[in-house]
């Protein structure tokens, strides 16, 4: 039989979060990482990469018919992106809440985009929008061996599980 902690670990959800080149250049890495950390989510992968245009097109393939697609992919591939995987209960949906609405002029204050960005074309951060995209985006950006499974000492205080 599985122990409480193993059951808990098996239920843990993962999402792909990326700080786009504008967020990196503006020195917002620590600010953004700390919001996910302080919430109680666990960082399981992180790397700084400059994606190629072709890679950016893969990442945003769902948007290829949109008029901003080309500019968006040019931008994503224009400099370093901080790619991350965060783990936690409900992290996909709540991570999007922490990020805020796509257009920062409509994002609530208190959200990352609401507090730190002004226009939709420079909204500093990406987050997976559902379980399927999270799975696909994690697989696109990371090799399985780059995902680190570990128990954080804080988990029993965050989840109340022994
Ligand atoms: N975007 C844009 N113009 C728009 C809509 C979106 O430049 O009118 C960009 C914006 O950077 C956004 C990205 O395209 O973050 C992906 O769009 P999506 O609708 O998936 O928004 P997100 O999931 O990032 O909130
Ligand atoms: Mg999206």
From TrEMBL:
Biological processes per GO annotation: CTP biosynthetic process; GTP biosynthetic process; UTP biosynthetic process
Main localization category: plastid
Cytoplasm among keywords: no
GO CC terms, sorted: chloroplast thylakoid lumen
Catalytic machinery residues: 126
Known EC number: 2.7.4.6
Family affiliation: Belongs to the NDK family.
Protein name, UniProt field: Nucleoside diphosphate kinase
Parent sequence residues shown: 88 to 249 of 249
